[in-house]
Amino acid sequence: MIEGQKVPAAYYRLAGDERGKYGHKPVGYDSWGYPQASRYVRKMQARRSLLIWKVYGKRLDGFSNDDHPSESEPGSGTLTWKGQPMDVAKFKHRLDIDFVGSVMPLPRR
Fold first, then answer.
1. Looking at residues 45-73, what average pLDDT do you find?
2. CA-to-CA distance for 104 and 66, rounded, in angstroms?
3. More exposed terminus of the chain, fewer Cβ within 10 Å: N or C?
4. pLDDT per residue over 65-79, tens digit each?
């Protein structure tokens, strides 16, 4: 439930899973925190949402994956930055989610 309302499970997992109940947990925190609604959606900043990056097939926020520390593998709990391991306790506030893969869904032919 989101604020006392019943919502479809898919919506909840995409836009209301701040605590990471489903899927990968946030690194070093018990929630994704403001402004993340979940791993996939950033509140009021669609261009910084992983879901939108997957729709367009690229990052749209002006950053590259190497601009901020991120998990070496989603859900691993370890941070890396430019290929080097980082101390989670010291750098978790700078955490970013990387865009990997390609556009989803695949373009129609």
1. 91
2. 22
3. C
4. 999 998 888 888 888
Asked whether the beta carbons of 61 and 71 are under 8 A apart, the reply is: no
Q: Which two tokens stand for residue 72?
A: 């070496």
Q: What does the alpha-carbon distance between residue 32 and residue 14 come to, in Å, rounded to a whole number? A: 12
| Contact assessment for residue 98 and residue 73, using Cβ atoms and an 8 Å cutoff | no
Task: Please report where in the chains the tokens 């997957």 appear, as a residue.
Answer: 54
pTM, entire model? 0.76
